[in-house]
Amino acid sequence: MHEKDRQRILKAATKLLPLDPQDWPQDKVIRFPDEEPLYFLRVPPDLCAFVIPEDGALVLRYVAYEETLRHLSGGRNGAQE
After folding, report:
1. Staple 59 to which of 23, 51, 52, 77, CB 3.0 to 4.6 Å?
2. Neighbours of 50 (CB within 10 A)
3. Residue 80 placed within a domain
4. Is the N-terminal amide bond of 45 cis, ω within 30° of 0?
5. How many Å apart are CA 36 and CA 9, to the nearest integer?
């Protein structure tokens, strides 16, 4: 992953840190209905990350290009509303 893309993800994740997850912007963050608090973070225009809030920090579980996720899901993006 290019450094510029890495920085975009870190910047987007950092903006969430001072907020309660319930206050995260719904157009950028979607919570998965799991026991573990797992969230899908959109980083426009083409990146996304799966994050978990933990002890005042965010754990980046997985980072991907949205195109890759669409391809893996057979062309549909299940995280879209």
Report:
1. 52
2. 17
3. no
4. yes
5. 21
d(CA 48, CA 64): 6
Is 4 in a helix, a strand, or coil?
helix
Domain of 46, in residue numbers: 3-58+65-72
Taking the C-alpha atoms of residue 76 and residue 73, their distance in angstroms, rounded to an integer, is 6
Q: Does the residue 79 lie in any domain?
A: no
In a domain, 9, yes or no: yes
Q: What is the pLDDT of residues 10-69, one digit of tens each?
A: 999 999 999 999 999 999 999 998 778 999 999 989 999 999 999 889 999 999 998 888
Residue 7 corresponds to which tokens in the numbers above? 């920085």
Please report whether residue 7 resides in a domain. Answer: yes
Residue that the structure tokens 């799991």 belong to: 34
Supply the pTM of this predicted model: 0.79
Strands 47-54 and 57-65: antiparallel
Indicate the number of domains in the chain.
1
